[in-house]
Amino acid sequence: MNLMSLIPLFLGNLRGSEIIIIALIILLLFGGKKIPELMRGLGKGVKSFRQGMNDIQNEIKHDSESDRNDDSTKND
Fold this sequence. Notes:
elongated
């Protein structure tokens, strides 16, 4: 999924100039040195979230496969 496709979901109907102004305000608030650290932390959070989602999907898949195997052995 592309980051630019997510911007309308969160920012509504903002135009390019408004997004630039928001970016400048963020730059002024946090400074140029802090932004990479914030993005790094955000990236780690997203990675952890995706890993958790994959773990849940694998667990559900594994449980459904074991249920099928249990059902087939009971019918024999």
